[in-house]
Amino acid sequence: MSAPALAPGALSFFAHRMAAYRHFWRSSLISSVAVPALYLAAMGITLGILVDRGHGLPAGVTYLVFLAPALLVAAAMQTAVGESSYPVMGGIKWDRSYEAVLTTPLGVPDILAGHLLFVSFRVTTSAAAFLVVLVAFGAASSPLVLLTLPAALLTGLAFATPITALAATLENDQPFAAIQRFLLIPMFLFSGTFFPITQLPVFFQWIARLTPLWHGVALSRGLTLGTIGLGESLLHVGYLLLWAVVGTLLALRTFRRRLVT
Q: What is the dihedral of CA 166, 255, 173, 181, to 10 degrees?
């Protein structure tokens, strides 16, 4: 199938997901604003005062400005994983809605593309709400802060696609808890979100640099501060794109194996 032939079907499945989303979009919007506001107030301002009085950060950057763009992409990671784990497994195994969709003219690529469109929508709108809060807290140092939205989207897709591929293979939801506990939380804590990874031992610095979250954090923070160069930006974007493309190919493969008999 050619890419243009996929577009109408993907949009149809996206519309199906949006129809379900309209029942809880208000609570989602509230949490998208309230959670970042509480995070920034608790850690960027109150804890930030102690950090600023202590060791400080490079180039005189306050902890609030250092922290806010990192939390934006970390929240994008969590949103993307949340929309690509239980919903995908549920659509395949529990309510079998994906099988129902396949009785229509839509195919597996349409389901996957529509799913990723919905994930992109959720990540982008959540990141936009976070960005509004970030600016309101005075944590934006450069007009390039607007580019944190595509940075957050790219980071989200770097996580969403491999998680989607995995979710299509599972028979129970236990691996999701393990992923959250042993992968996402350590990445959240040690990939530069709360402190520069240069504070870590060299071995763990290299591990951090292999994670998509570190690249998303470095890209978003550099854009917010206006300190990132074109070459560095392309490096981060390329690495995140690699994860997203490989994850998409794996997801297409696992979807076909699971849904096409």
A: 20
pLDDT digits (tens, 9 = 90+) for 25-82: 777 777 777 777 787 777 766 666 656 655 556 667 888 888 999 999 999 999 999 9
Q: Which residues of the chain have pLDDT under 50?
A: 1-5
CA atoms within 13 A of residue 140's CA, in its CB half-sphere: 16
The residue to which tokens 């950090």 are assigned: 51
pLDDT at 27: 75
Tokens of 115: 């799913």
pLDDT at 46: 67
Is the whole-model pTM more than 0.70? yes
User: What pLDDT was estimated at residue 4?
Assistant: 37
Residue 211 · residue 187 · CB < 8 Å: yes
What sign has the CA pseudo-torsion 220, 84, 113, 11? negative
CA–CA gap between residue 107 and residue 260 (Å, rounded)? 9
209 close to 197: Cβ distance less than 8 angstroms: yes
Identity of the residue numbered 59: A
Q: Which two tokens stand for residue 48?
A: 């930030």
Residues 80 and 119: beta-carbon distance below 8 Å: yes
Encoded tokens for 192: 């530069």
Write out the DSSP string of 71-97.
HHHHHHHHHHHHHHSHHHHIIIIIS-H
Distance CA 17, CA 24 (A): 12
- Is-contact 156 74, C-beta < 8 A? no
